[in-house]
Description:
Elements: E1 3-8, H1 12-23, E2 28-32, E3 47-48, H2 49-54, E4 66-69, E5 71-75, E6 81-85, E7 91-94, H3 96-110, E8 113-116, E9 124-126, E10 129-131, E11 137-143, H4 150-155, E12 163-172, E13 174-175, E14 181-185, E15 196-201, E16 204-212, H5 217-230, E17 244-251, E18 260-261, E19 264-266, H6 282-300, H7 319-331, H8 334-340, H9 344-355, E20 360-361, E21 380-381
Parallel strand pairs: 1-2, 1-11, 2-8, 5-14, 11-19
Antiparallel strand pairs: 3-7, 4-7, 5-6, 6-20, 9-10, 10-11, 12-16, 12-17, 13-21, 14-15, 15-16, 18-19
Helix pairs in contact: 1-3, 1-6
Amino acid sequence: xxxxxxxxxxSFAGLTCAIALARxxxxxxxxxxxxxxxxxxxxxxxxxxxxxxxxxxxxxIPADLVRRVxxxxxxxxxxxxxxxxxxxxxxxxxxxxxLMRWLASLAEEAGASVRYRALFRGATRLQSGxxxxxxxxTRFLVGADGPSSPVARALGLGKNRQFLFGLEHEYSGLELPxxxxxxxxxxxxxxxxxxxxxxxxxxxxxxxxxRRVRHPRRxxxxxxxxxxxxxxxxxxxRGIRPTSVRAGMIPCGGVVRxxxxxxxxxxxxxxxxxxxxxxxxxxxxxKHGLAAGHAIADYLNxxxxxxxxxxxxxxxxxxxxxxxxxxxxHFQSDMLFNLFLHTRAIRSAASIxxxxxxxxxxxxxxxxxxxxxxxxxxxxxxxRT
Length: 385
């Protein structure tokens, strides 16, 4: 065999899986169709504290690639807001292209071969693995190749069937007021089924929204213009050209079935390992990608059974979040959100969504009424923190 394992997709899940495999001495190749790991991304790149706590390699992230955000400012459709926080909890916004390149460099340092402009075209089963044509043979195959996984299609594995469509602008060199908060906006008209957001990144500000894809993509682009108009009293970037634009499909239906077959495993977005409510998938991608690499290495070294038979049992079920997704899809009401923003019910739901039950209203922060007057802020030069 040319390879012990081939990983398709230089994603968060794919690269951490490759790092674990290569560090275990496995001959590992990553196939990535893009020109480099940081090109044409579809993710906001926000890392939750749980990932920092559970994935030790993140301790080594270069300081200039991340920015700490302490809590959430949740806005009702009428722009009244409430601040939410949890003791010791925080998020890291990232310079996502450079973060992905950093992860790819870790994989290469560990001994993995990362091949760019390498398009996976299919796999033929062999007695002890797969024939990948021009990419040789492999004993094990991992699909970490996005929500419309070619590996899943080629080998008859489960498909993601429910999606959001996300669109994000990045504005370099600007500073967001109240940058210690992840600003989240509920608006059924502009972002049905999800939210809009503002976040301070290491080099500027990210502004984006996501919505159910039963609405065509063109209205999603039009909704972005409406969103920028709406948030102008808080942060006005109308007329400022974004430094970069990201867009893409986000699976929100839970883990696909089946997510594995003999000697092949899906992980990350390919497996639907994305929260149905927050659309956050980086934590699960990092954690389960790394664990998959260890499990596959143990199997190839004869220490355990084929992980395709048992490893997917560790994948998240999202039971509560799938219920919240159902409720949000069918009962989202701007009027009710305006009325109940400050209630215990909203606080409890937000605790599940953002802080895994740990969240509370932040007693340190005064809750202003934006209807009585708002501070209108134009994008200003960045102040690094």
